[in-house]
Amino acid sequence: MAPSSDQSLIPGFLYSSKILSHLDQGLPASTTSIVSHSPYGTSHNKSPMIQAPKESIRMYSPAYYAACSAGGIFSCGLTHMAVTPLDLVKCNMQIDPVKYKNITSGFGVLLKEQGAKGFFRGWVPTLLGYSAQGACKFGFYEFFKKYYSDLAGPENAVKYKTFIYLAGSASAEVIADVALCPMEAVKVRVQTQPGFARGLADGFPKFVKAEGAAGLYKGLVPLWGRQIPYTMMKFASFETIVELIYKHAIPTPKEKCSKSSQLGVSFAAGYIAGVLCAIVSHPADNLVSFLNNAKGATIGDAVKKIGVVGLFTRGLPLRIVMIGTLTGAQWGLYDSFKVFVGLPTTGGSARAPVPVK
Questions:
Q1: Which family is this protein grouped under (predicted)?
Q2: Residues in CB range of 199: below 8 A, 6 or more apart
Q3: How many angstroms separate the Cα of 168 from the Cα of each of 162, 165, 235?
Q4: Domain locations in the chain?
Q5: Which residue ranges of the chain lie beneath pLDDT 70?
Q6: Residue of 260, 272, 271, 279 whose CA lies nearest to 328
Q7: In the chain, alpha helices (H)
Q8: Which label site among 113, 150, 207, 322 has the fewest CB atoms less than 10 Å from its CB?
Q9: Beta carbons within 10 angstroms of residue 43's beta carbon
Q10: How far apart, in whole angstroms, are the C-alpha atoms of residue 49 and residue 353?
Q11: CA 108, 110, 112, 115 torsion: positive or negative?
Q12: CA-CA distances (angstroms) from residue 79 to 124, 167, 187, 210, 252?
């Protein structure tokens, strides 16, 4: 019987190591029914595989993608809002390194000029923008990961899993940045130009009046340049690191680990992935901050003013701390939400058990 259209070819190895063991040995797909169970239907009670509730959320159904999108809102919107003070200092260090020489002096200058309240300037566009981005990023990542896996076929989905992670995350981020860009433009202007506006309510119409509606998307290409490599690294490295942790650092297969242990792995792998993300995407982050701060500025103007070396180094230590913490928290919150609604945590299939003879 042909597999259901709802079944993905990659989720088998993502969520059940038993299917992977059979694929690796080149056994016919039909033999997997002897020792493995579908993540969508009923299964034997002794199966250690993490499953979604039988009657609640069916894997890879519209409700599943909606739940993943909701998890993305929860993880991205709240975490980005929480690190607004770090983001504020980072943006100002990128725009005016003479005035904001380092992290310590940057916080000191902001405290002296704007008071403690100033540390959360721009939190509303941050919350709204990154909530929209998170919904698209995580929801579409799950969608495209399944879609590209189905196109590849079972053997290739396993063999080229990293390429599927990269392609799925890149596709999702293209959409996510369209949702983020207007709020990011207003956020940067509010945070880096004192007196421009108090926040979103007065900053948005003032920005549109000055730049036009098209100005909200002036930074879209640099934003893609920052976010697409960032997200590709974020998802592909996370999935790989989780798999390596379960393979080399934890003696117990993932499916037998407690939920709290799995969430701890998600945070640790997310933090490491975040450090890599910060390094890869930092030059484009400097460009986004420069272009959204200076009216009529071009990428050439940014490179000339900041310098090639400055694009890679200005504000980087702070961004590593910020993005590492942010990404670790995002993966922890995202997988916590998935567990809360009865879905399996992301990535990291455990060692394959010995096949049944």
A1: Belongs to the mitochondrial carrier (TC 2.A.29) family.
A2: 121, 122, 123, 124, 125, 190
A3: 10, 5, 9
A4: 58-340
A5: 1-55, 349-357
A6: 271
A7: 11-15, 17-24, 32-35, 62-72, 78-82, 84-95, 103-114, 123-152, 154-159, 161-192, 200-211, 220-244, 259-293, 299-306, 308-313, 316-340
A8: 113
A9: 15
A10: 12
A11: negative
A12: 13, 25, 16, 30, 30
Q: 199: which 2 tokens?
A: 């926040």
In 10 A of CB 328, how many CB atoms? 22
What sign has the CA pseudo-torsion 85, 87, 88, 92?
positive
In the DSSP assignment, the letter for residue 344 is P
CATH superfamily of 58-340: Mitochondrial carrier domain (1.50.40.10)
Q: What is the pLDDT of residues 15-26, one digit of tens each?
A: 333 333 333 444
Q: How far apart are CA 331 and CA 263, in angstroms?
A: 8
Residues 6 or more apart whose Cβ sits within 8 Å of residue 66: 139
pLDDT of residue 322: 83
Give the span between the Cα atoms of 107 and 329, in whole angstroms.
Answer: 23
Asked if residue 236 lies in contact with residue 295, where contact means CB atoms within 8 angstroms, the answer is no
